[in-house]
Amino acid sequence: MKKLVILLFAALLSFGTMFAKDQSIAYIDMSYILKNLPQYEQANEQLTMLSKRWQKEIDAAQQEARVMATNYQTEQIFLSETMRTQREEEIVKKEQEVLELKRKYFGQEGELYKKREALIKPIQDEIYNAIQELASEKRIDVVKDRSSDPALIYMSSKLDISDQVLQKLGAK
After folding, report:
1. What is the average pLDDT value for the chain, to the nearest integer?
2. Domain definitions of the chain by residue range
3. How far, in Å, CA of 25 to CA of 155, rounded?
4. 35-72 per-position pLDDT tens digit
5. What residue ranges of the chain have pLDDT lower than 70?
6. Long-range CB contacts (< 8 A, 24+ apart) of 141-145?
7. What is the CA radius of gyration of the chain?
């Protein structure tokens, strides 16, 4: 019985390998590709400038809230109950404005996210299309990104098509 099972398993294994196709695999280094694309660098610069401008606006609002709180602490004993309540509400309102600015600019669906999507997504799509064209031309079945594969220990340089993708994109 054991011999029959082993024989059947061996037959299935050899039958399966007859129809198995060799897969051709290539690798890209996405961070290398992005570094060598001028339009990506320009988009990154725009995002950095916007981010700094918005952060300055937030910092100014935070500073204003701190000054209001410090002044309130100093003047608190001289203020009537109504004036204290009013000043406390103003401080809370200013702190809420700061939080709202942070959310508006840097939140999950904030302006920075939308701008990044508008600037970077077309570049990513262009890279994807170039990879797809190259894979089709060279009959490559699988293209992996080595820059995001922590399990990759070694790769032959002849499998790296990053420079070819850059050429397809008109860079380098």
Report:
1. 87
2. 20-168
3. 11
4. 999 999 999 999 999 999 999 999 999 999 999 999 99
5. 1-22, 152-153, 172
6. 141/23, 141/24, 141/25, 142/23, 142/24, 142/25, 142/26, 143/25, 143/26, 143/27, 143/28, 144/25, 144/26, 144/27, 144/28, 145/27, 145/28, 145/29, 145/30
7. 30
